């Protein structure tokens, strides 16, 4: 791996902003501005946190494949540990915890993505921790963990940050509590101190136009076939649908679904506020 790559300390750490071209390597070519393709001076279509993770690792271990992949693989293992601890904390029924961990540990694409020098593993970790931070905020009123993990999620993958905030907003409206809703707004203000300055150089308000500019016209029939295609991808690359049947049979044999905890509603959607 060449040290002239934008992931290396020579560029990302020294220049602060990951460049789209360092004189040799091209990461991103263009963006849409007013409907026209313009050459981009720096990386804009990808979040930046993973650049600095790889660059920092290379600064410590040198410019090699191990250094580039190490922080992402480590974060991938943390995802498994945090998912287990998260479910142990929030899910009363052990069967759900066991099933989730087994499905994740036998998910080959998960491991392949976690070792890549991209935003996959940071986004997975901070999305999970962000949800955990929100649940902690809603139960105790503590905002610091929710704010911290949500900001790190934004720096990892902006689209997932939007989904987390929308989910938090919808949940706070469904289970409305005046103090918690006010706390959510205050948390959003603190997040904006990082989100807004980062959004300006990335021009995130143009991102939907960028994406739409590359899309072709999609018909209703075409959308249906896309949906079927995604289902096939899930079956082929994430987990076989047959596994769902296996877990249902396993649960029925252990009489999981007839236990009082299920009757009381032991899932994350039904915990007491």
What share of residues is helical? 55-70%
* C-alpha-based Rg, rounded: 21 Å
Number of strands: 2
Average pLDDT metric: 76
Number of domains: 1
Provide the low-confidence segments as ranges. 4-15, 209-217, 269-273
Shape: globular
How do the SSEs run, as a string of H and E?
HEEHHHHHHHHHHHH
Lateral arrangement of strands in the main beta sheet: 1-2
Tally of contiguous helical segments: 13
Largest sheet: 2 strands, antiparallel
Label the structural class: mainly alpha
N-to-C CA distance: 51 Å
- Classify the beta-strand content into a percent band: under 5%
Q: Can you offer a commentary on this structure?
A:
The protein has 273 residues and is an all-alpha fold. It has one domain. It has 13 helices and 2 strands. β1 and β2 form a beta hairpin. α3 runs antiparallel to α4 and α7 packs antiparallel against α8. The longest helix has 26 residues. The termini are far apart.
